[in-house]
Amino acid sequence: MKSIAAAFLMLLCAPALLLGAEPSVSLKEALARALERNHLVSGAAYEKEAAEEGAAAGRSRYLPRIVLDEAFSASDLPTRVFMMKLDQGRFTQNDFQIGNLNTPSSTTDFRTALTLEQPLFDLGIGYGREMAQREAERMGYRFEGRREDVGFAVYVAYLGVQRAKSVLAAAEKDVEEAREHLRVATVRGREGTGLKSDELRARTFLSEAEERTITALNDLKLARMRLALAVGGEAGESLDIREDVTGEAFRLNEEDIVREALANRRDLKGAEKGVERAEAAVGLARSAWYPTLYAAASVQMNDRDVPFGHDNDGWSAGVNLRWELFDGLGRMHGTARARAERDAAAQYLEQFRKEVDLQVRESILRRAEAGKRLEVARHALLAAEEGSRLVSKRFANGLATMVELLDAQSALSRARTGLAEREADHLLATARIYHAAGIFLKEMIP
């Protein structure tokens, strides 16, 4: 009998032992690890790098382009043969004979050319560079915003573990008290002072409490897995929290938070850069109305028999002005389209500013609401504890029924779980304000 009891005790303790073996982190450690290892942050970093490389590529268009060409051709066309021989320096007096001019023998030519092209005036390069630069800045803000989002997700996951632990502790306490009620009902039934129905009700109540404990255990396991995933862990890993998050005094008033949000929200600043990029796109469309001026120079070698050979060489240099005077009204419509896209981006930005303002004010109201609900939950727990104590004393003296006792116990269980939920909700409501204002990491990792 003793061995069976020992085995049952080990079975009950096994989940707690297994859960306690998880590696743990503090909130700051979890945030730091997530910003370093989370795949969403890494992906945003690569997007930022790609945009910066695109901006660098746009700047490179101001520099000269140097191209090496090697071409081979063979022909018996009179004009082609005439020019090949001239380029190779093989033209002779005999080539001026009428028969040789009209029906020359076929010949070959290897042409080696080193060409340099330098833009002197091209407005499109400047506007294209500005567009790429604005895009790089937008992706930079997107990267910072992703860090904020991931940090907030880690905080939510961290609170999820803390909430699950509190709910599990409440459930285990319910099981402990339910076992005591069953023991009392069993003893009273054995002594003939209690009812069989009381014992059955107590046993059912204990079973329900044990079911809630099983659910709470699984919720805690899943919460730990979500935390591990949020900080960049592998699939299936679990991570425990080392310390609970405690509520801190809220230092900023509503108007200050709104100003912080309008100044610091990365997605809002990214949208502003999107408007600037659209403005540069208008300039790019307008630049198509202006001429372009390019300088070019080339050194050329020609050989009849081998590539990169040197039967003869020469050079050329010049400047090319190109001005498209009419393109079928394509530039006019292109410019109108760019203006419309710029105006659309500006309108979306203005609406987004209003939405950010509303998000911040709503989060502040929700925090006040969460604070009041937390206060109500604390009072409810005190009342439920006192009510359970009084009913338990009345039941011990035979003045209350088992139904009344279990009702009071159920109310106490709900109050305990409700307080755990409200405490986590209040902490999360404060974090949502910082996240809505774009200063979550600043406040969490000073």
Automatic annotation (TrEMBL):
Subcellular location: Cell outer membrane
Record keyword Transmembrane present: yes
UniProt KW keywords: Cell outer membrane, Coiled coil, Membrane, Signal, Transmembrane, Transmembrane beta strand, Transport
Pfam family, one: OEP
Signal peptide (residue range): 1-20
Gene Ontology MF terms in the entry: efflux transmembrane transporter activity; porin activity
InterPro entries assigned: OMP_efflux, TolC-like
GO cellular component: a single term: efflux pump complex
Sections of the chain in a coiled coil: 161-188
Record family assignment: Belongs to the outer membrane factor (OMF) (TC 1.B.17) family.
Protein's recorded name: TolC family protein
